[in-house]
Request: fold
Amino acid sequence: VSVLRLALPSKGWEEDTLRFLGQCGLRVDRSNPRQYRAHMRGLPSGPAEVVFQRATDIFDEVSAGSVDLGITGYDIVAEHRSEEDNVLVVYGELGFRRCALVMAVPEGWVDVASVSDLAEVAVELRTAGRELRVATKYPNLARQFLYDRGMTYFSLVEVSGAIEAAPALETADIICDITSSGVTLRENRLKPIAGGVVVESQACLIGNRHELQSDPERLEATRGLLELMEAYLRSRQQVSVTANISGESAEDVARRVLASGSVVGLRGPTIARVFPQEPTDGEWFALTVVVGEDVLLRTVEALRRAGATDVSATQVRYVFGHRSWTFEALKRQLQRAPDEVEREKTTA
Amino acid sequence: MLGERSAAPIHRIRGTTDVLPPDDARLRRLETGLRTGFERYGYVGIQTPIIEPLELFLRKSGDEIVARMYAFSHWNRRLCLRPELTASVMRAFVDELQGQSLPLRLHYAGPIFRYERPSRGRSRQFTTVGLELIGAAGAAADAEVLHLACAGLEAVGITRYKLLVGHLGAALQLLAQLGMTDHAQGLVLDNMEPVARGRVDPDAAAARIVELLGGVSGSANGTANGLPASLASLSDEQATAVAADILRRASLPVEGGARQPHDIIQRLLAKARRPDPTDQVRAAFDFIADVRAAAGPPERLERDLRPVLERRGLSTAPLQEVAAALDLLRVYAPLSSEVDIEVDLSLARGLRYYTGLVFEIYVEDADGPLQVCGGGRYDDLVRALGGREAVPACGFSYGLERLDLAIGDGHVASITPRVLVVGVTAADHATAVGIASDLRRLDRVSVEQDVRLRGVKSALRYADRAGVDLVVIVGERERDEDVVVVRDMRSRDEARVSRGELVERVREVLL
Reply:
């Protein structure tokens, strides 16, 4: 039997990744935490082989086909992908490890607030016989970003170790690096600039085109994985609201709820008769709707107006559609010639 | 080492082409024909390296080219594959030819590399064939270059084409008049042609440029926002002192490694005093729209383009230069009635070094217009590349593969007749080699030698499939009699011919 092989990021990423998989109903077992091989259980097709690697190496492993799938940062994918590689973005937004690749300049550059200022400074330095030095571990993205904004006078500096320290150490003038909260930038007396976001990133699932294309069993296992991820990610902002409401009939209750302007869920309210323990006036019904978290309060108020009471809300764990659209998208990608695959990430 | 398994095939890089026979012969003949034509006007050939320092193209080639370069670092030097040849030729001029008497006329051909989306007539490696006329300013030189571009096309059989002529002088004057910085000018020039041709929405392009220049949305996020405006009215010295003081009190350290506090504050003030770029950009785009609207046959130069320039107080010298060059062009040779000339001052060519007349030539075929040629005047490039003094220059280049595409089926390669000489056994090989050598005295015949030595039957099968015209066979009996068997593969006729008469006989049959 052909077993799905999945690379997961280790080091600082591990906890977030395992939590995410756990929320999807997937469990990673490993005999001891120092081992870098493990099994993942929870897929209908059986356990998958897991190998832990640094997030930056996972792209190469997937590209080489030593694993079928891998979870890594979209920033890493965007930097390392090439026109003729074998890597597909299978699920672009897994919803964790959110960060951005940004241009940041020394706080002391009070005259630099935007990318256009940066372009002028580059010209100014150039006139003085110097070059704007950009420290980064993302040379491809940084170069393209600056070119796209009409800047050609700069040099990229490869820095080993902490990028944020480069301006203070004077090995570079500015940096292009990952930030999530901005704290590290501030601690190093750097500031982001307007229009300076090179790419927004978060964890994503990537796959090897050839491996997935050539093996129906592993492709089927991938479908199972995508179903679970999609169901979890779709459910995240969904709340299931249940309330009791009295009325003459289910139809009567439905009419009142719909008239109240309440959000009625993915399809419409589910209404079921309640059989009270003690005799009451009229009939009671239980009503259930699944709504977005952002409209929860509005929904509750509308339901109250319609006469509802005992309103409870629970976080939905999974939402399954009639099929997995991420898997459908993957199949379309696999059918296309390698260089026709869109460069854009697959978004949820 | 690879064992039993066959190694995976290696494919050519996307956007590149293997030029296979007979295309190779056809393209080489096309190139040679064009360059031989240039030589009749006194141009001499030059070759420059395919790899160049990245810096060469950063200086003046423009962002549009730079963003599409194959650039790389090799042992800590920044290099690139050349994306065009003019900068290379002018670098060579500055390097090694500045002592030559002017004008200097150079022609060249070679591959250039641009990372673009491959499509019909557009590869990432393609061949340019062109020339540069160095050391001559004015309409006479412009006209020679225009004439050579047209004459070259006509020499290869293209008589129906569109010649688009522009002049960068008008736009450059306007941008300088508007007080735009070099950076801003570059952004506008890069957008001039795409906007004029409707490839890019003008409002969206203008908004993007304004944003890139820090107008509207860009300036709202300044660390020292609000500070500059109040200082704008003070003198330089006062303003610098006040700004430094305020920043110190706000404990905003004005420092930045390579940049001196003085520079930072100066720039902060310069920025504050600079008008919002929105109006400048809008004025530039209005101009682009006006010149585009006035584009058309040369008759419109006086009638419609002149007012566009005069209304803005711009010199009309560019119009006179275009008119003079076009008048002279007709003196060289009457242009075919199928040549359509259009004057369009929004033509920018995507290269930043042009300063004067620019032109492009398009051939219309079933799939739409195909640009086969482009060129113009670049009077500042020699200085930008470190030349001792400004040297005016102009030139053009063809895209060889596109020319080939435009010529279409019009030029099928003239076919060289082929002869194969075969020995019946290995013992006859030496004699066969001698016979082949004799036959090579004939011009315009290709003579192949059988070297697989698998016998006559196998050789005839090859000859049949490969399209060989005549097969000459020699065996022991023929050697004894000093004859050969000549088999005509087209008619399947065979004849015994004495060795002494063979060359003459082959000439009769094939030529």
Q: What stands out?
A: Chain B touches chain A through 42 residues (CB under 8 Å). Residues 217-225 of chain B have pLDDT under 50 and may be disordered. DSSP finds 20 helices and 16 strands in chain B.
